[in-house]
Amino acid sequence: MAEITRKQERGNTRRPGGGRGAISFCMIGGEGERIWGGTLAQRARRAFAEHGIRDEIRESDIKTATGPVILLRADAIVDPPLIAALIERPGTALVAENTAGAPVPAAVHAPARQTAAGLALLKTGRGGGFEFARADQLGAGFWKKLRKRQTPYVLLLTPDNRRQVEWRMFMGTYKGATDFVTKYFWPWPAFHLTRALAPLGVTPNMVTALSAVFVVAAYFLFLNAHWWAGLAAAWAMMFLDTVDGKLARVTLTSSKWGDIFDHGIDLVHPPFWYAAWAIGLANTPYALRPAVFWWTLGIILAGYLLQRIMEGVSIRALGLEIHIWRRIDTLFRQITARRNPNVAILTISVVFGRPDAGLIAVACWVALCLVLHGWQLAHALITARRGPITSWMVEQDG
After folding, report:
1. Spatial distance between the Cα atoms of 54 and 45, rounded to a whole number of angstroms
2. Looking at the 3D structure of the chain, how many domains does it have?
3. pTM for the whole thing?
4. Do 134 and 183 have their domain in common?
């Protein structure tokens, strides 16, 4: 996922007196500590730029500012989606979640006549005229679009809590509805690799490009019945597919092109892997009979396509992804016939020396999941006729 431009990262520093009514932002206390390969101020500039705010003013000019200003402590980290909520809440002070005792303001949306008071509030912790709010009190329903239930964060970084803050930020990038491999096996190694790559200047697109190499390698290895080597390449690709997205999100360096690059690879390659596996079997003692070959491959490829169509119908007709409708749908998403669970089935089959049985098992699992998803979608469409349906994540969080 491509990097944000240097111009966006720096912002456009100005003195007060610009367009009246336009929101500016100001870092209170300098550039701040470094995290994920950049300073907290650099991170904040990227986050504000994503929401159309590139007008930065100096702390020394706050008292004479003529427009509203969002002030942010230099040691504060605000989850980017919360910036959109804060923009809509003038007069609000966001408090940090990882502090003991009295609420500690980390960011303030100060209207034009309250900028000096906002500065005093962040510097001293005292000042009237602002409504204190935690992240979970901003009504950030848009967060559920990311298919997660974890509350957005407002954190203060110190030398003693760096590892905990990094872990909180990293886990905040995960979706609530995903497969069991991504959910339970990848977080710990992906966290450490992402943490190592960020300070080196490795970009998300570099990671995605490497994963594309493993996609091609796995295809040709499967095609030539090199099962273990092909699976090693496949698992490496699937791991890097997690890392590139996490690296983009924790460093705020995602882009439209990067999203297309990453998701385009994800969408296209699985059918080629299954076809290569089936063809690779032909030159081994485990070759499938012609009828079994075509039925197996046909079910897998048709099921792959139909499941994507069902997911698209759900988003278009219901306004939400079918995997986050009910709790059971989210649980089923962990094992449904998608790439990672299917490759896990193929891996188990190779462990037991029956790569042919693995492909047939994938076909059976795809067929069963297709039936279950069809019933799931039909039930949702019928339920929606009685009124809009909502995700269980929204309902649980109120």
Report:
1. 7
2. 2
3. 0.89
4. no
